[in-house]
Model the fold of this input.
Amino acid sequence: AEVAAQVDIVFTNLPDSPDVELVALGAQGVIESGRPGLIFVDNSTIKPATARYIARTLAEKGVECLDAPVSGGDIGARQGTLAIMVGGPAQALETVLPVFQAMGKTITHVGEAGAGQIAKAANQIMVAAQMVAMGELLVFARKAGADPQKVVEAIKGGAAQCWTLDVKPPRLFTGNRNPGFKAHMQAKDLNIILETARQYGIPLPSAAVDAQLFNAMLELGMGELDNSAVLGVLEMLAGTRLLE
Done:
């Protein structure tokens, strides 16, 4: 509340929906000193429903909200090349745009409050699918008798080429499973996705399987590893190891 009283724009980037709601609407939150002209920007990945609720509630104080989750990982954050997905008033985005341009290279106004979080959820469906598919192909290649590094080299020249294959296998081939984007955060995002999908009656069979694999990582004490380390669960299921 004290900070919000002294600035024109408040940024947050927090682990989960309850954390953002507490900072925005709690007893010492933004709402306590909210005033017309203040802009609340949340870069967290949270439930779309929570983003909409915060926006509605702060609007009663004249505070404009932008839900603006980001994608691009630790590399994008360090290099200022994040993708930023924005929900909320266009006028507020125009005000904040110079800050966003310092943070990222792709800034998209997706729509009204909550739309940024829907876009990020869609992004995380694809990210999780790529991590699992990459783990599967590495385990498949190893156990079926081909050199996984050669397989990755071969398929990167075809339709399977993607950011995940460019960035993750070089780390995994050296035994590096450190984060990056932590597996427990990937699991949290998938749980948000599935909860939102249930609200709208949307079947997401692949995301449901991916969620089981990432939740298994948590149960196995692997939640602090990189999301690409879902490979470890697949190694256990297949009875093989990438590095032997």
Observations:
- The chain has eleven helices and six strands.
- The first helix runs from residue 17 to 25.
